[in-house]
Amino acid sequence: MALALALTILAPPLARGAAPPAGPRPENVVIMIPDGCGPATLVLARLARGRPLSLDSILVGAVETGSSSSRITDSAAGATAYASGVKTANRVVGMDPAGNPVETLMEAAASRGMATGFIVKSRVTDATPAAFVAHVRRRSQEDEIAVQELAHRVNLIMGGGLDRFLPEPAGGRRADGRDLVAEARGRGDQVVLDRAEFDGDLRLPLLALFAPAELPYEIDRDPKQAPGLVEMVRRGLPLLAREPGGFLLVIEGSRIDHAAHANDPASHVREALEFDDTVREVLAFARRDGRTLVVGAADHETGGLSLGRRVGDTPLEGVYPESLMAVRCSAERMADSIRAGHPARELVERETGLHLTLEEAGMLDRALPGRRLAEAIGEIESRHAALGWSTWGHTAIDVGLYAFGPGSDRFRGVLDNTEVGRRIAESLDLQVGGSRSPRAPGSGGPATP
Ligand SMILES: [Zn+2]
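Above: inputs. Below: predicted complex with zinc ion.
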């Protein structure tokens, strides 16, 4: 009884389900999504860097990530929850489970006259950015998503995915023959397709696509070829901030997820650190500006990453993330070099800085004839760092919730992912989640069945 009373008194004022306080209203919102980044990833990143992360300073709670079709969400349903406050099924983008398009934050913000943008490391037509402006039944409909994104007139689009904007004869993958790059230029948008153009003057509306598909992993990136997430945000954020009427910006650390799917720990931790560097950049802006709410949350965890593991029957007592910081390229890139003829053991030892055991060298030899070479390299790096992975897919674990700035008091405790989206909308006094006429202005035409 005494314990129960003590727990009641100690319970946080905003336990789950409690109504959020009506605090000050932000004029701008930056939503930051580290795709596939769970709590273990951030501990790994903190240990690897040897000091607290920027995210650590704004941790306010946790998010339950399940979708309507599974306790394990995908990025389409996860992003739809944040973008519209609606629980939908895996693979569905910007629609409820019955296939009705739902109003998104970005659509509501644009209707109000706010500037909008997204900056991602994946294809700009991938599920996370798509859910903020597009409405399709399957996330794989990326040709259609590209059309809807342009029709919506998002003011700032930066990332990869040029393939979906160009027809096949022009080197792209669009099946319908449309050249969306030419269409964007034709209506007066600035189109930027390489590093040199990115380093020049930029203006809105801006469509900046630096790769046919994803941008390179940070660990592999040649700064002369493509900008990283920090630079993209450093150039993009001031453009939006100059617009009258406030702005809504979505930033995605898309490839934290990809490296976790690959169980490639060195690429994974570098992506997470790059994302945290981007958070630092955004927080510096928000502190100067004073009118910007920053909300961060992954859509789900990926990989089932754990710090501590057994090798054979032996549980290792210790974790060694420092070893990952010496790795010089992704497991995928090492595998490509080995297939191109470089001796496997020598190359892996050189690029990882590790001394391989005979057993580990044997793992490479056995993997070489098949397509699992990158997996073997990731496993060797994981053993040396004492990291475990439970899956190549996503998991159901809660992810961290982060908030800073005016209106951040609304975000406390354990929230369902849809509640995060609804509270962002409330903080801007916007309505989201209502059914959206497929032909409403700015919707980009009828949703494809
Ligand atoms: Zn994923």
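The chain has two domains: 24-304+392-427, 306-388.
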